[in-house]
Write a structure and sequence with these properties.
By secondary structure, the protein is an all-alpha fold. Helix content is 76%, strand content 0%.
């Protein structure tokens, strides 16, 4: 039987991966040049938009299937911390950085969690029996 905590972690992992995948896809579909321009307006080099969008898109898919989840979650947390500081903090919590903070917290939780049973990492990198 699967523990309730394990089910909760799976739900959070899937939500996190889907959310970042959709945000990365949106950046590319909406014109990555526009996103680069927005980054530059915040004082961030435009090429960072390509890096962030790629991490969101590919990382989102990887987190959904459970490949490299902990490392990617750390990258997601860094992206969210940067978004809060650079773009959202001045707007305040409501209507500002509340979603970014929630995604940051979920990312940290996933990064600190053990692999769960429904992760492809378990197939690729099986745990050795002691």
């Amino acid at each position: 039987m699967i523990a309730r905590g394990e089910i909760g972690a799976i739900i959070l992992r899937l939500f996190l991966g889907l959310t970042f995948f959709v945000h990365g896809l949106s950046k590319f579909q909406g014109g990555i040049g526009n996103t680069a321009g927005f980054f530059e307006s915040l004082g961030i080099p435009g090429f960072a938009a390509y890096v962030v969008a790629t991490i969101e898109l590919i990382g989102g898919l990887a987190v959904i299937v459970g490949i490299g989840t902990q490392v990617i979650s750390i990258l997601f947390a860094l992206i969210m911390a940067g978004a809060i500081v650079q773009a959202k903090f001045a707007a305040g919590f409501l209507g500002g950085y509340e979603l970014d903070l929630a995604l940051l917290v979920i990312s940290v939780f996933i990064a600190l969690s053990n692999r769960n049973i429904w992760a492809l990492d378990n197939v690729i990198f099986p745990k050795k029996q002691s």
